[in-house]
Design goal:
binds 2-deoxy-2-amino glucitol-6-phosphate; 18 helices; alpha/beta
């Protein structure tokens, strides 16, 4: 999830671009760059790391009088965060910035290289500018070349492109990644990924729809819909509060990140699913040769996604799988075998305990893989292989979209390994891929559901504790739900296997003990139901989450009927995330920065 800005006007283009990128740095800061075109001359600057490095590089560069410019702050999805991979990417006489993923970039790149095009970067984005310049040689105008280029792209994108052949124009296209254009009385034109950078500059904005493309010049804003029909811009007043703008109007970053899960999971899947196979460009299938066991190691929420993964690895890939809490694993003198693939999971890629276990595995000569959300982090740099979760920056300390994308990656990886080990029929694999495509839809938050949970939350502000209970993959989900609640409401909660309640904890059952029961229709429903009835018979206060009406609960949150337990998993994940959020709000806590916690625990 990157940040894009563009400007066309008479002011100091460099300053405007850098100020805009500063407002978008929360979207990603692996690297940043700008390109300014003035009097048919380009000035281009890029820097790795935070924006301050780009400011340093451009401190002696100023622009006055009319110019067009584009800028970008990167959150790596393809290619390491290096200066070469930083945007804007250049052709011969054009620059492009892009947010999203071009799914067919490999084919486009192969064809362009066959035409003799030399690529400088490892990114998918670079194909856009070369494809444009290829079309510029064929089409009559730059706009026709741009339109043709956009029609040849597959995937998600928000694109800005500037070229010497139309040096007073910015070309744009939007599909699947956000972008808007702003105007004011001084005839300036502003582009950005979200409205924050435009606050104080533009008076009105037009939010592009998927499929919109076109160009902006000094005297025209030309917007075309995907059926090539020209349409009138629809301008509306811009919000004025920067911080709420960064939260896009949500009350907290955590709330925003729960709502973002549908989009970021779609990004996680992009380019990795075909009809009958899973593709990880970043993995070499030979990497799994000789591997007979997978050991997963992590902390906190990442440990919960690892636990969830273990059920899928054994169920689908028929490979032995064990899961470790990193802080325990480091000190118990574990036996490590070379036929074990050691997998660490971390949103930040910096968690001290997890990082140390990765070092132990490498020292013991095991193959290592990291599933991580931050490219170029310590674990990504250390592991033999890496799968990025593409969740974008997660600002809420309580992890949500990182967990969701981790589980999505592990579902894909279990199928990928199943195919390598031939443990799943092609028919079943194709069906699993069909189910995976349903995940983004299953985590979309509806007003009805959110309102229901908001109302319900007032009943759970006291009591002597919560049990979240579930079976199979719903046990790690129960652990995750309990952790969310603890982290942001400071109420005590435990995740527990449903079948274990009768081995002691049921002694706690009374009306002041709240049980959040996960009752999936498609996995051990009857077993889970009888566990809940045991609690209900002892007057525990029960909130059941299920697709099936359940009359023995005090509260009931209904999820949508679906055809597989993993889609129930993702729906229930959203419910427990929202429940903890709304209870915390009612208790008046700081949802995004709960007491005693840090986003990344880089100390032991
Ligand atoms: C989860 O909500 C917490 N923020 C915490 O448990 C976190 O998952 C844990 O510290 C691990 O962090 P990591 O994923 O960055 O390694």
């Amino acid at each position: 999830m990157c940040g894009i800005v563009g400007y066309l006007g008479e002011k100091n283009t460099k300053e405007i671009l850098l100020d805009g990128l500063k407002e978008l740095e929360y979207r990603g800061y692996d690297s940043a760059g700008i390109a300014v075109l003035q009097n048919k001359t380009f000035s281009n600057y890029k820097a790795v790391g935070k924006l301050i490095n780009l400011e340093e590089k451009t401190k002696d560069f100023t622009t006055k009088d009319f110019a067009v410019g584009i800028g970008h702050t990167r959150w790596a999805t393809h290619g390491k965060p290096t200066e070469l991979n930083a945007h804007p990417h250049v052709g011969e006489n054009s620059y492009v910035v892009h947010n999203g993923i071009i799914e067919n970039y490999v084919e486009l790149k192969r064809s362009l290289e066959a035409d003799g095009v030399k690529f400088l970067s490892q990114t998918d984005t670079e194909v856009i500018v070369h494809q444009f310049e290829k079309n510029l040689k064929i089409e009559k105008t730059a706009f026709e070349a741009f339109s043709k280029t956009i029609s040849e792209l597959e995937g998600a994108y928000a694109i800005l492109l500037v070229t010497k052949s139309e040096d007073a124009t910015i070309f744009f296209a939007k599909h699947g990644s956000p972008m808007l254009v702003g105007i004011n009385q001084e005839n300036e034109k502003y582009f950005a990924s979200s409205d924050t950078p435009l606050i104080g500059h533009a008076k009105e904005v037009n939010y592009f729809e998927d499929g919109d493309y076109g160009f902006v010049s000094n005297d025209e804003i030309a917007i075309f819909s995907k059926d090539a029909k020209k349409q009138k811009p629809v301008f509306q007043a811009i919000s004025t509060n920067r911080l709420s703008a960064q939260k896009d109007g949500y009350r907290f970053f955590m709330e925003k990140e729960i709502y973002e899960q549908s989009d970021v999971i779609a990004d996680t899947l992009l380019g990795r699913l075909s009809e009958d196979a899973i593709h990880f460009d970043e993995l070499d299938p030979a990497f799994f040769d000789g591997i007979n066991e997978i050991k997963l190691c992590a902390c906190g929420t990442s440990y919960h996604s690892a636990l969830t993964a273990s059920y899928m690895f054994e169920r689908y890939a028929k490979i032995r799988c064990s899961v470790e809490i990193a802080s325990e694993f480091r000190y118990r003198e574990p036996l490590m075998c070379k036929d074990t693939l050691f997998v660490v999971i971390s949103q930040s890629g910096e968690t001290a305990d997890t990082l140390e276990t990765l070092k132990m595995a490498k020292k013991a000569g095991l193959k290592t893989l990291v599933v991580c959300n931050v490219d170029n982090s310590s674990m990504v740099r250390l592991a033999d292989a890496c799968i990025l979760t593409r969740a974008g920056i997660e600002k809420g300390v309580a992890s949500t979209k990182a967990f969701a994308t981790q589980v999505t990656v592990f579902w894909m990886l279990s199928l990928y390994i199943a195919k390598l080990r031939d443990t799943m029929t092609s028919k079943k694999l194709a069906h699993q891929i069909f189910l995976l495509r349903g995940v983004p839809g299953s985590v979309k938050v509806t007003d009805t559901m959110h309102e229901r949970i908001k109302r319900l939350s007032k009943r759970y502000l006291h009591g002597h504790g919560f049990f979240f209970i579930g079976r199979d993959v719903f046990f790690p989900l129960a652990l995750e739900g309990a952790l969310k609640l603890k982290e942001i409401s400071y109420l005590h909660a435990e995740g527990y296997p449903s079948g274990e309640m009768k081995h002691g904890p049921i002694a706690l059952a009374d009306p002041e003990l709240f049980t959040i029961a996960l009752l999936p229709q498609h996995l051990l429903y009857e077993k889970s139901k009888s566990n809940v009835e045991e609690l209900s018979a002892r007057d525990s206060t029960i909130c059941a989450i299920s697709a099936i009406e359940f009359d023995k609960a005090d509260d009931f949150i209904q999820i949508n009927q679906c055809e597989d337990y993993m889609l129930e998993f993702f729906q229930m994940m959203v419910v427990v995330q929202l429940l903890s959020l709304e209870i915390s709000v009612r208790l008046g806590n700081d949802v995004d920065m709960p007491r005693n916690l840090a986003k990344s625990v880089t100390v032991e």
